Amino acid sequence: MKNIIKYILIAITTLSFACNNTQKNSDEAVEVGSDDTAVMAKVDAPAVADTTTKISVGDQEEAHINYADSIDFEKYEVGPQKRVANAPIDWTSYPEAKDFKTRITEAYKDNEVNFGGYYVTSIFGCGASCIMGFMVDVRDGKIYDLPLGEENSCLFAEDRALYNWMSRLFIAGVCKENVDAKKVYYKAYLWHEDKKEFEKVDESAFLKK
User: Are 120 and 141 in contact (CB under 8 A)?
Assistant: First the structure.
C-alpha cells in the first residue's frame, strides 16, 4: 500500500511540474517588450489601407489623369478685371430661367466671379450623365445659357464643366467612345464677349503641346 501511495505522489508531482513548465513557456511566447507591456506574439498586425486612388487597366495600375492640366486656359485669358458689385439679376433677359430661380439666385449670391472675368455660373444635374447651367453677368445681371445639357453630355465622361474665372474657354465634357477607350475627345466652347455667345472650338486650339 505504501508503495502505491508513493507512486501516486510521484505521478502528481511530475504532472504538476510539467504543467507549470508548459505555462511558463507559453507566457514567454506571448509576452514581448518591456515595461510590463504584454502583446501577442506571432499575430499579424492589420494591414494599413492603401488610400491612393488608382485606375486598373488589365494587370497595370495608373494614376488618375487631371485633364485640366493639359488645357491652355491662359491662351484665352481676359486679363485683370475691375471688381464691381453684383447687379440685380435681370430675369427679363432670359424668362425661361425662372424655372431654376432658386438655384441661380443662390449661386449668384454665394459665389464669386468664376468664368470669363465677369460671370457667375450655376450648374446642376438634369438626369443621368447630364448637367445643365447658366451664367449671370455681374455688370448688368443678364443671364446666359452654358453649353451643357443633353446635347453636350456624354455617356462615358472622364470630366465635365472645366473652366476658370480668367478665361473665355469652357470645356463642357471630356469624353470617351466607350468604357475601354484609351483616347478622349473634348466638347469645348469659346465665349465671344462681343457677340455674347459660345462657339465650338477644336481641341487643337487649346490643348498644350
Answer: no
